[in-house]
Amino acid sequence: MGNGLPKLPNQAEGDGSTKPASATLVKVILADSQAIYRVGIRKIFALEDDIRVLAQAETLGQLLAATAKFEPDVVLFESSLCPNPVGALGEVMRRSPNAKVIVIGPETQDQEETVEFLRRGVRGIISRCVSPDLLVKCVRKVAEGETWLDNQGVNKVIEAYRNQASQLTSPKPKARLTDKELLIVACVTQGMKNKEIATEVGTTEQVVKNYLRKVYDKLGVSDRLELALYCIHHRLLQGIRVPSLEGATPDSAPKPANGLDEREPLVTSHKV
Questions:
Q1: In the chain, at which residue ranges do the beta strands (DSSP E only) sit?
Q2: 157, CA 20 to 30 Å: which among 108, 136, 195, 253?
């Protein structure tokens, strides 16, 4: 990951250049809604023998047309190019799957948007105020397959994951669950299927699903894994009778039609 350090392993002595000895041509499409930035960035790249701008775009439509016509190694994408940049990037990557995308954002890029860009496959994030030499380094590193984040981007990613972890581990007021809801939660933590839970509490599978949705809403979780973690960190089931599965065997109950065992799974999906 590029970190903006003043010297890199492939940096030539004396002139401050970071151009590899045997440079491979990096083909770039530049998408920016402001002409002054497009002109400036193109002039920066014009000084580099190993970077060539194939096309410029000032709208999403022009960018999609350019990616269909050319085969870029790197796409420089301004985050303000369109109202929904995250969705637009998905279409860009679909049309040009081999291209590596670098997002150019404002100096105060939103934390959630930064993380979402990375989740969608963006390989680099830089701010408008990036220096010319760091911009060139970023393009070269990303073209080589590395991920580039400046210090601000790294801090945002770290902070986002800290916030996510704290939501699961920080003390919270215990939600008021009914006795039946607590029993169903106890069954879930034992890895029981919805059908087994329904038998245990004397109801139907659909009713169990309805109860789980209510529990998810009350506790602020989205799936069985988060529910189990919540129970562990908040000791939700202290004093609750936990159902025993001693009499059950893996082959004693029929498997769902899709062949998946609901015991496997405390996976991160929204299935209840």
A1: 26-31, 51-57, 74-78, 100-105, 124-127, 148-149
A2: 136
Annotate 17-26 with b (16+ C-beta within 10 A) or e (fewer): ebbeeeeeeb
Task: Judge contact between 40 and 30, C-beta under 8 A.
Answer: no
Tell me which residue of 94, 74, 42, 95 sits closest to 141, measured CA to CA.
74
DSSP H/E element including 231 = helix 224-234
Instruction: Give the model confidence (pLDDT) of 97-124 as tens digits.
Output: 999 999 998 877 677 888 888 888 999 9
Condensed to tens digits (0 to 9), the pLDDT of residues 64-88 reads: 999 999 999 999 999 999 989 988 9
How far is Cα of residue 154 from the mean position of the Cα atoms in its chain? Answer: 14
- Three-state DSSP class for 2? strand
**98, two tokens:** 């081999």
Euclidean distance between CA atoms 164 and 122, whole angstroms: 21
Contacts for 159 with CB less than 8 Å, ≥ 6 apart? 111
